[in-house]
Write a structure and sequence with these properties.
Distance between the termini: 21 Å
Radius of gyration: 18 Å
Number of domains: 2
Shape: globular
Number of helices: 7
CATH topology of the largest domain: Rossmann fold
Bound molecules: D-4-phosphoerythronic acid
Strand content: 15-25%
Length: 258
């Protein structure tokens, strides 16, 4: 994987003395970004009052280990008067990114806070390797859409998610998308922990259902439909949020999409 080169290139463009508030994503790729932040700090190339906003326990630890200052989303004022944004740039990984820069995230179970931070950012820059670059979501990522749910009724929510797309409720979807749902009824699987018996428990104390449904032709419609199920806390589809995506290729080159 060329993540190292990827972050190496993107750092000059996105993290420098002009960035004062930086969102730090979660996952394995972001670890490389944290390493570069340490280097930039050493070279005195970061804003002297840089604040980093974590998206998970892991991300907060990365910030602390890098010797940077962590801040909370709600402690930050708006960047510009009348604007909703309080973060200059967020750099985050992704599980898959489609041609329109819609993404599936949550493979690491951090998508609730990742989405909160992304929504408060002027720019969301995704970094990933070439295997995550696709035309349509669901083409490459075959583990389903991560959906964070309340543990209070996870099996009820699971059943509802598996039946969540009555044709009459599907608005704004192409005929192809509707047909895809007809033939790919969603299957929701409770994510299991690896070195603990039982389910994964998120940083927020919730469970994750991975909902497989084949290709997703209309990410915004699917995101909205999934969110309508009571007990769904956040959906790992990030529609219309990323401003650019950088992919590290096998040969070490970079593909950047805006
Ligand atoms: O869980 C997440 O949302 C992560 O950001 C994930 O999407 C990317 O993780 P990776 O860099 O380990 O592949």
């Amino acid at each position: 994987m060329s993540s190292l080169n990827l972050v190496e290139q993107s750092k000059h463009k996105h993290v420098g003395p002009t960035v004062r508030v930086l969102g730090v994503g979660s996952g394995s790729t972001v670890v490389y970004a944290a390493e570069r932040l340490v280097e930039l700090k050493r070279l005195n190339k970061l804003h002297p009052e840089l604040l980093c906003v974590p998206t998970s326990f892991q991300s907060k630890q990365l910030i602390i280990d890098a010797g940077l200052r962590a801040s909370d989303l709600d402690d930050l004022p708006e960047l510009d008067p009348g604007s909703f944004a309080s973060i200059d740039v967020t750099i985050d990984g992704a599980d898959e990114v489609d041609a329109e820069l819609n993404a599936i995230k949550g493979g690491g179970g951090a998508h609730l806070r990742e989405k909160l931070v992304a929504a408060a950012s002027k720019k969301l820059v995704l970094i990933a390797d070439y295997r995550k670059d696709s035309e349509v979501l669901g083409e490459k990522w075959d583990k389903g859409v991560p959906v964070e749910v309340s543990p209070l009724a996870w099996s009820t929510i699971k059943r509802q998610l598996e039946r969540f797309v009555p044709k009459s409720r599907v608005q704004g979807m192409t005929a192809e998308a509707v047909a895809a749902f007809e033939y790919n009824h969603p299957i929701a699987v409770l994510r299991q922990a690896v070195r603990k018996a039982g389910p994964v428990v998120t940083d927020n104390g919730n469970f994750i259902l991975d909902v497989s449904m084949g290709k997703i032709y209309d990410p915004l419609a699917v995101e909205q439909l999934l969110k309508m199920v009571p007990g769904v806390i956040e959906v790992g589809i990030f529609s219309n949020m990323a401003t650019e995506a950088w992919f590290g290729n096998e040969d070490g080159s970079i593909t950047c999409r805006f």
